[in-house]
Amino acid sequence: MANSTTKPVSAATLLRQKLESGSFILAPGVYDGFSARIALSVGFDALYMTGAGTTASMHGQADLGIATLNDMRANAEMIANLSPSVPLIADADTGYGGPIMVARTTEQYARSGVAAFHIEDQVQTKRCGHLGGKILVDTPTFVSRIRAAVQARQRIGSDIVVIARTDALQKYGYDESLARLRAARDAGADVGFLEGVRSKEEARRIIKDLAPWPMLLNMVEHGATPTISAAEAQEMGFKIMIVPFAALAPAYTAIKQGLERLKQTGLPGTGSELTPQALFRVCGLDESVRIDEAAGGSNFEGGVDLPK
Predict the structure, then answer these.
(1) pTM
(2) What is the pLDDT of residues 248-273, one digit of tens each?
(3) Residue 48 catalytic?
(4) Which candidate in 32, 77, 120, 190 is catalytic?
(5) What 3-state DSSP class applies to 243?
(6) φ and ψ at residue 211, rounded to 5 degrees
(7) Residues 50, 56, 62, 65: is their CA dihedral positive or negative?
(8) Does residue 118 have an active-site annotation?
(9) What does the alpha-carbon distance between residue 103 and residue 149 come to, in Å, rounded to a whole number?
(10) Which of 37, 84, 249, 259 would disulfide-bridge 245, Cβ 3.0–4.6 Å?
(11) One of 96, 109, 127, 218 is an active-site residue; which one?
């Protein structure tokens, strides 16, 4: 008799279960494998792949719609599969085209292990939501993007969570933004996302006006949105809070300081605890050693630590 196996629950299903249970989800922004590994080691229950961070790390460019679907999907797949039980929420920009491309984006993200993604109503040549001068598509075009994502999810039988983001607040104001989110909700979006919330009062208002639909808060410090802590966001009624620059901003500060020190002194001056072994252990060194040993390999019989 063949052994029966239990299929593991997907990250998308886990995220849906969290949302349905009323849990609050705090997801730090990560942009590459190393930042994701660090966030996982700290113990976060979800991660967010920032499009701005992906563009900066992969291309050294600003968040101006430069990263393609293939760029974003490849990065998301790598991050999502570092720890498949930790849901990854990923930026999907505008969906990268009309309904056919949005459907393809949905399918590729779902098959890559992504748990949720957000699609916005900017034009294809988009920019970061916290930059000025954004240009938007009309509401029917935005809704067609959301509907295409929802229908694609249903066709492939995926639980991937579809998040509808509107950037209309800056140019068209609150009422238009609310109308766009209501239309996206009616088209089947699972979560709403009002980009660039301008005050705590406005944050509370959007929760009230769209209740009980789950809402996401994008906490970009020093951007359009005032500083709101995770505890405050939860108290307001948000179900998800993403912090896109959670890894990118500290990385900039630390890397710049370290390189300036190297240029001035000729030495990086890192702490003695930051050995190659310690850094590689963040990236799964010990697990790799165990895999080799379990398979009968002998590559690590002498260990990896240097003799003292």
Answers:
(1) 0.92
(2) 999 999 999 999 999 999 998 888 88
(3) yes
(4) 120
(5) strand
(6) -60, 140
(7) negative
(8) yes
(9) 5
(10) 249
(11) 218
Cβ–Cβ < 8 Å for 48, 28: yes
Active-site option among 128, 147, 180, 190? 128
For the CA atoms of the chain, what is the radius of gyration?
21
| Comma-separated ranges of CATH 3.20.20.60 domains in the chain | 11-252
195 included as an active-site residue:
yes
Catalytic residue among 31, 37, 77, 91: 91
Number of CB atoms found within 10 A of residue 17's CB: 13
pLDDT in tens, 15-49: 999 999 999 999 999 999 999 999 999 999 999 99
Under DSSP, the state recorded for 228 is: -
Tokens found for residue 5: 């196996």
Q: Alpha carbon of 133 to those of 17, 29, 63, 172: distances in Å?
A: 38, 24, 14, 12
User: Within 10 Å of residue 165's Cβ, how many Cβ atoms?
Assistant: 29
Token pair listed for 28: 């730090």
For residues 36 and 77, what is the distance between their CA atoms, to the nearest angstrom? 12
165 noted as active-site residue: yes
Residue 183 has pLDDT above 60, yes or no: yes
Of residues 153, 44, 38, 133, the one with CA closest to residue 92: 153
CATH 3.20.20.60 fits 11-252, yes or no: yes
**Cα 88–chain centre separation:** 6
Residue 129: which H helix or E strand, with range? none
Take residue 80 and report the two structure tokens written for it. Answer: 């999502």
Place of tokens 């989800």: 25
Rounded distance between C-alpha atoms, residue 128 and residue 59, angstroms? 15
Catalytic residue, chosen from 31, 48, 96, 109, is 48
Eight-class DSSP state of 238? -
Residue type, 98: G
